[in-house]
Amino acid sequence: VQLAESGGGLVQAGGPLRPSCAASAFIFSSYEMSWFLQAPGKEREFVARVSRSGGVTYTYYAGSVKGRFTISRDNAKNTVYLQMNSLKPEDTAVYYCNADGAWGQGTQVTVSS
């Protein structure tokens, strides 16, 4: 398994959650890392991306999460995090980690109103 998400769960609206994605050392050191979400009955969509390790770190966000979510990477642990704050019911989805076309199995995030 090259990418493995964890840390999803059930949270009340307004609360935080921090899913994580553990990657193989090769994947983590070689590629940008991204998070996507897929809500029931909808297409998978981009959430956030962080540049590859080494050099200046760049982050990119979808407009719907900018200011609420923060993507970060821990190079010592080969892990990418998605700090999700001020969660809304519409954030409910399966969240997937992606790197160079590889996908994890996803982690369910459910936000109750």
What report would you give on this structure?
The structure is a single chain. This protein has 113 residues and is mostly beta strands. It has 1 helix and 11 strands; from the N terminus they run βββαββββββββ. The strands form 2 sheets. Strands 2, 4, 5, 6, 9, 10 and 11 form a 7-stranded mixed sheet that branches. Strands 1-3-8-7 form a 4-stranded antiparallel sheet. A hairpin with a 2-residue loop joins β9 and β10 (102-103). The chain is globular. The mean pLDDT is 95.
Tell me the β content.
over 45%
Structural class: mainly beta
Sequence stretches where pLDDT stays below 50 over 5 or more residues: none
Calculate the mean pLDDT score and round it.
Answer: 95
The main β sheet shows up as:
7 strands, mixed
What count of helical segments does DSSP give? 1
From the N-terminal CA to the C-terminal CA, the straight-line distance is 35 Å
User: What sequence of helices (H) and strands (E) makes up the elements?
Assistant: EEEHEEEEEEEE
Outline? globular
Calculate Rg over CA atoms: 13 Å
Which percent range fits the helix content? under 10%
Count all strands and give the number.
11
Task: Provide a quick synopsis of the model.
It is built from one helix and eleven strands; from the N terminus they run E-E-E-H-E-E-E-E-E-E-E-E. The protein is mainly β.
Could you name the key traits of this structure?
7-stranded mixed beta sheet; 11 strands; 113 residues; single chain; 1 helix; 4-stranded antiparallel beta sheet; mainly beta
